[in-house]
Amino acid sequence: MGLSSNNPLLLTHQTITPTPPLLFSSTFGAVAATGLWLHTFSNSALNFSNQILRHRHCRPSRVPSVSVPSRTLKPKANADEHKQRQLQREEEEEQEDEFQLLSSIRSNYNDIMIVDTQKSRMLLLDSSYNVHSILHKHQKWTDSYWDQFASLPPIIPQGPIAILGLGGGTAAHLMLDLWPALQLEGWEIDQILIDKARIYFGLSDLEKHTKAGGILNVHVGDALSPSVNIPGGYAGIVVDLFSDGEVLPQLQEVGTWLEISNWLMPNGRIMVNCGGTSGGSEADLKSKLSNGINAVQNSTIKAMSKAFPGQVSWKRMPRENGDNFLALTGQIPDLDSWSGRVPTPLSASVKQWRLYEEI
């Protein structure tokens, strides 16, 4: 579900006073809330289509169901059964269209919206209303790029891991759930966003020690400033920095990556969400790869490859899981060994990493 970019919402944001939860449903044709929405908007303005909602330039895992006409006649009993299943599907989708806007506020850095559905809670930022964090109510896995960050601990030394671009803490939730002894150092520039994440995304729970001693320490400040560095360095650094729906331009500069690498301990690694690509369709990518052509047209990965020649690996999430590019520094790991050391949902995906080679 997502906010349609074709029907932009006009918002007036409260700056201090919290907004009471509001329930919107696809059943109603128009809804208005004094003090929050500038105008009454129609059902079409709240097009919660999974083809629109994007996780920092990635698509969610669920795709709309499509009814395909049958090629042959079927007995009436089967037809009635099919119709009943279709009605049930439509009812379930209508229920999923119901959502609560829990908070809408403008900070110095973001337009912040927090949306709650029956299955998950989402953090939407910027005028793009991309999803920057998601918290499912019945599982930690997201079926998106956040899950991949949880594969990092087995291939780095023991030590603290930095998350640059903490957002609502989606990656931190899963990492501490799978690896409860981790010491995570999360950096986020927006204090108001952190306050909201503590209220609505359970961030404050991560700031308490687990039984194994793990914890998330939250830092508010510029994630690319020298103050991020710590004595002894980080075992790993997760980079997930976006603004207005795009990767920060600093991440497309070689100097930025050389500076970040100075914050690592020996044999430490950096794993990065590099966003999307302008390199053509998925079919084009597979065709070029089958012919031995490096088809990665991602500016962040290219900058990293110049900073660390021969020391950058990459992978692309499947289209149904977001279509994001990810990058990893250091010698490419033994993929079979890595696969055997991560939970089952990650065991196949870690084998998709490949060494980046400049054309």
Radius of gyration: 22 Å
Mean of residue pLDDT values? 77
Q: What is the structural class?
A: alpha+beta
Low-pLDDT windows of residues: 1-78, 278-282, 288-295
How many individual helices? 10
The portion of residues forming beta strands comes to 15-25%
Distance between the termini: 39 Å
Please give the number of β-strands. 17
- Helix and strand string, N-terminal first? EEEHEEEEHEHEHHEEEEHEHHEEHHE
Helical proportion, percent range: 10-25%
Largest sheet: 8 strands, mixed
Biggest sheet strand order reads 10-9-8-11-14-16-15-17
> What shape does the CA trace take?
globular
Q: Would you give an account of this structure?
A:
This protein has 359 residues and is of the alpha+beta class. Helix content is 23%, strand content 23%. It contains ten helices and 17 strands. The protein has helices spanning 76-96, 145-149, 170-178, 191-200, 203-206, 254-261, 282-290, 299-307, 335-339, 344-347, and strands spanning 22-24, 30-31, 41-42, 99-106, 111-116, 120-125, 130-136, 161-164, 183-188, 215-220, 234-239, 242-243, 246-247, 264-273, 312-316, 325-329, 354-355. An eight-stranded mixed sheet has the order 10-9-8-11-14-16-15-17, sandwiched between helices. It has a five-stranded antiparallel sheet with strand order 1-4-5-6-7, with helices on one face. It has a two-stranded antiparallel sheet with strand order 2-3. Strand 12 and strand 13 (246-247) form a beta hairpin. Helix 6 packs across helix 8 (299-307). The protein is globular.
